[in-house]
Design goal:
With 307 residues, this protein is of the alpha/beta class. The protein has three domains: 89 residues, Rossmann fold (3-Layer(aba) Sandwich); 67 residues, Dna Ligase, domain 1 (2-Layer Sandwich); 98 residues, 2-Layer Sandwich (D-amino Acid Aminotransferase, Chain A, domain 1), CATH 3.30.470.20. 34% of the residues lie in helices and 30% in strands. The chain contains eleven helices and 14 strands. The strands form three sheets. The chain has a five-stranded parallel beta sheet. A five-stranded antiparallel beta sheet has the order 12-11-10-13-14, sandwiched between helices. A hairpin with a 2-residue loop joins strand 13 and strand 14. It starts with a strand and ends with a helix. The model has no long low-confidence stretch (mean pLDDT 94).
Length: 307
């Protein structure tokens, strides 16, 4: 198989390392890649935001499969455009990637299909959001609706923090991602990351991990996309995995299919585990970074066969 890997992070380095080990692989390209990925793949200069350019490259190089690492290209519809050109892609459509691209969309899906999650409100203006926060009090969680590189969530322990987070969203700190916000109930418990491989109709559990987001030693400071991770997540017992599949993942798969946007690719559920069971914090439409790095180290199977 001739494979093109899209992305340039630690996640993509882990994917490249695992794909390169497959007996099925005949050639691996990566765009834009990084020096570590360059040890496993041939790096190519492609503007991954230029989907016709990527499609032309795939046609010229007779690419059998495109593996999309980051969320940005998926939310922008790269999988749709490549499939329209007859190219196989591992990753969800633009419509299905809304599970990550819009937190409000996901919360509304949860409400419609009785998926356990935090109570919430959606707001498109600062005044309404502030009124809701002042009514609910702190601690409370403020989320920019769109993609913000893992930095659009504030767990506000005081009312002042919450109001400042709303100001940051609506003053353009997160660009268009902050034009709408989701304000959520503060959940207690232990966080975990749960990954499934999906084909549009069926979801198979792939693995669990826990990442640590705060920037400072001792788990202090603002959240990042992830400072480190380990796998498996001890809190994700077989019973908890079964409950997560039954109560969260399977209703999501049904709901997306009913909406005309069946999900294929990696479905990454960010969970809060409490004595009452799992609740969905958020969905991502791709492997986590840094979680992918620890998952690939544990995987004994041929990744290309799974994809």
């Amino acid at each position: 198989m001739r494979v093109l890997l899209i992305g340039s992070g630690g996640r993509e380095h882990a994917l490249a390392w695992k794909i390169a080990a497959s007996p099925l692989l005949t050639k691996l390209y990566a765009a834009p890649g990084n020096p570590g990925i360059g040890q496993e793949a041939e790096l190519v200069t492609l503007d991954i935001a230029d989907h016709p350019m990527v499609a032309r490259f795939c046609a010229e190089k007779k690419i059998d499969l495109v593996v999309v690492g980051p969320e940005g290209p998926l939310v922008a519809g790269i999988a749709d455009d490549l499939r329209a050109a007859g190219i196989r892609v591992f990753g969800p459509s633009k419509a299905a990637a809304r599970l990550e691209g819009s937190k409000g969309f996901t919360k509304d899906l949860c409400a419609k299909y009785d998926i356990p999650t935090a109570a919430y409100g959606r707001f498109g203006d600062l005044a309404s959001a502030k009124a809701y926060v002042e009514k609910m009090g702190a601690p409370i969680v403020i989320k920019a609706d769109g993609l913000a590189a893992g930095k659009g969530v504030t767990v506000a322990m005081t009312l002042a923090e919450a109001l400042a987070a709303l100001d940051a969203c609506f003053d353009g700190s997160f660009g268009q991602a902050g034009a709408e916000v989701v304000v959520e109930e503060f959940l207690t418990g232990e966080e975990a990351s749960f990954f499934c491989l999906c084909d549009g109709a069926t979801a198979l559990p792939f693995g669990t991990a826990q990442d640590h987001k705060r920037v400072g030693d001792g788990d202090i400071g603002p959240n990042t996309g992830g400072m480190g991770a380990y796998s498996p997540a001890p809190v994700m017992t077989p019973e908890m995995i079964d409950r997560t599949m039954r109560e969260i993942v399977e209703p999501t798969m049904r709901g997306m299919a009913e909406l005309g946007a069946p999900f294929s690719g990696v479905l990454f559920a960010g969970l809060m585990i409490s004595d009452n069971g799992p609740k969905l914090i958020e969905y991502n439409a791709r492997f986590g970074d840094p979680e992918c790095q620890v998952l690939m180290m544990r995987l004994k199977d041929d990744l290309l066969v799974l994809l």
